[in-house]
Amino acid sequence: MSWSLHLPLNNPHAAAPHSSLTSRPANYFAACLNVDTRAPDSDQSKPLKDKRSSEIIADEKKFIVGTYARAPVVLESGKGCKLYDVEGREYLDLTSGIAVNALGHGDSDWLRALAQQAEVLAHVSNVYYSVPQVELAKRLVASSFADRVFFCNSGTEANEAAIKFSRKFQRHSNPDKTDPSMEFIAFSNCFHGRTMGALALTSKEHYRTPFQPVMPGVTFLEYGDTQAAVEKIQSGKVAAVFVEPIQGEGGIYSSTKEFLQSLRTACDKAGCLLVFDEVQCGLGRTGYLWAHEAYNVYPDIMTLAKPLAGGLPIGAVLVTEQVAAAIEYGDHGSTFAGNPLVSSAAITVLDKISDPSFLASVTEKGQYFKDLLVSSIGGNSHVKEIRGFGLIIGIDLDVSASPLVEACQQSGLLVLTAGKGNVVRIVPPLIISKEEVEKAVGILKKCFHVLDEATST
């Protein structure tokens, strides 16, 4: 029997007299939610949609925990590669929600899949089977090295699962060892997430230091240093090596085939797992379905997330049968993961991006973008290098990229930073047109003068 049925609303024990809830006005919660409790003819309040950016930004600072240094832009709608703020200003989006909106904003097939699934079934938890989740897993297995899939809700969750799976694999594979391999290798400039295990694998100290102690047993090596990596793997203490074939947050650094192949060979000899983090670089962004395909080197575990559901939260861990055999009921889980709604969206995204003609267009547009950048701004004194693979591109500067990013935003172009703040990160929707590429490069070139102004002050 429900307790609430027998608890009078005016029961003095329901909330203590000193409670902040009892001291607030009756319409406090309505005010927080911007619900107008006054008569319909009152003009003393404005609906949320009529609020201007400054008001919304002020509300954000008042009500949301301050973990984000947001750009002063309040976005309201989007279509394709375009975004619009609450004042109606248009922006060309080269961020795609940090490499998430691979099909752009408002893709018609994606919307149709969501609407159809939402009418039928959105969520049931993983206590039960659901058809879209199984269909998505079948597609991921069919299109990759993997035999099985574990679903979660984000990239950091995917890497947390990979950490657990790696350690469980070592215990399962070495049942007689009292001290199985439990350590990990990660690399300079890497980013694997912000939860405690994934954070321990992330190289930037200022991300980790406020939350020490994080998970012990992680060794950071120089990205691309084959000798150091092989020597550490041969120590026999390493459960898994975590590596991004192309580093996004770290500054758009690409691996080499020789480096990845050396890791693969050393891991095989030592019984160590090789984990490819393709949260940002995977699923078509390089022009290959999976970034590691460009190197012809394959992992034991691959983590995915950002673009997989086209804007809805999802993560996935793809594993070989050998790894999956170590995992038992209850070893890991997630309430929301792979629910019917998000899985239906992901099936649509995966099907569209997997099309060979789609992938070929990403390769073509990525090369066109890089060539245009080189010819337009490559000679600028502040440009050290223009690098990338497909539609993940970095402009490495000799100064902070922030003034340029801000100037671009004011000119209607949204880009990101990476590395140590000195890299302009370009990760547009994969559907971007050549005309939009040309427009973007034109705006970037026009805004470059702010770097001279910033260095002269």
From TrEMBL:
Location comes to: Mitochondrion
The record's listing under CDD domains reads: OAT_like (cd00610)
Name the enzyme group at the top EC level.
transferase
* Keyword terms, alphabetized: Amino-acid biosynthesis, Aminotransferase, Arginine biosynthesis, Kinase, Mitochondrion, Pyridoxal phosphate, Transferase, Transit peptide
Any one Gene Ontology MF annotation carried by this entry is: kinase activity
Q: Which is a Gene Ontology cellular component entry for this protein?
A: mitochondrion
Cofactor section: pyridoxal 5'-phosphate
Q: In what pathway does it function?
A: Amino-acid biosynthesis; L-arginine biosynthesis; N(2)-acetyl-L-ornithine from L-glutamate: step 4/4
What Enzyme Commission number(s) does the record list for this chain? 2.6.1.11
Q: Which reaction does it catalyse?
A: N(2)-acetyl-L-ornithine + 2-oxoglutarate = N-acetyl-L-glutamate 5-semialdehyde + L-glutamate
Tell me which Gene Ontology terms the entry assigns under biological process.
L-arginine biosynthetic process
NCBIfam families with a match to the protein in the record:
argD (TIGR00707), PRK01278.1 (NF002325)
Give the family from UniProt.
Belongs to the class-III pyridoxal-phosphate-dependent aminotransferase family.
The name on file for this protein is acetylornithine transaminase
